[in-house]
Design goal:
This protein has two helices and nine strands, in the order αβαββββββββ. By secondary structure, it is of the alpha+beta class. The N and C termini lie far apart (71 Å).
């Protein structure tokens, strides 16, 4: 337990008027001391809520491909580029290590890229599974390290055949 002693200055008789007129100096000094103690306890209690060390962050980023987008795609022909709303309908879901508690939802930009800053730790990554979407290899467990980038590219299969 931390005990602090606050020295009280001796006031000359003519300075006792610092207390309100209806309180004597004998009553006023303990009240001031009490207020100082309450303020110090409040400060100490407030510090208890501060984290012991700042959290360090890393980055999860990647690129998402989505397809097929039409029932028949010709072999050797490039797949059509997904429209921005195709990406906008899907999200990357970041769960805490338990795989159940959602930590973040990350939007995929119109070009298929995503990026999110996360505190160091273990996470489970999945997609929001719009319709019959699936992604091979998801959910997957990753570890975020301070000041490092984890790259995770995701191929979403729309189920269109």
């Amino acid at each position: 337990m931390l005990l602090l002693s606050v020295p009280q200055p001796k006031l000359p008789q003519n300075q006792s008027q610092r207390c309100p007129a209806n309180l004597s100096a004998e009553v006023c000094r303990p009240v001031k001391r009490y207020i100082v103690w309450i303020m110090m306890l409040g400060l100490l209690a407030g510090c208890a809520w501060l984290p012991l060390a700042p959290k360090e962050f890393g980055v999860l980023q990647g690129h998402v491909t989505i397809g097929p987008l039409s029932p028949v795609e010709q072999a050797g022909q490039p797949s059509p580029t997904p429209a921005p709303e195709v990406y906008a309908a899907r999200q990357i879901v970041v769960y805490k290590a338990d795989g159940k508690t959602e930590a973040a939802r990350v939007r995929i930009d119109p070009h298929g890229d995503f990026s999110v800053e996360l505190p160091q730790g273990e996470y489970v990554i999945d997609i929001n599974r719009a319709g019959v979407d699936s992604a091979k290899g998801l959910p997957v467990k990753i570890t975020i390290y301070p000041n490092q980038v984890v790259v995770l590219d995701i191929d979403i299969d729309t189920g269109i055949r």
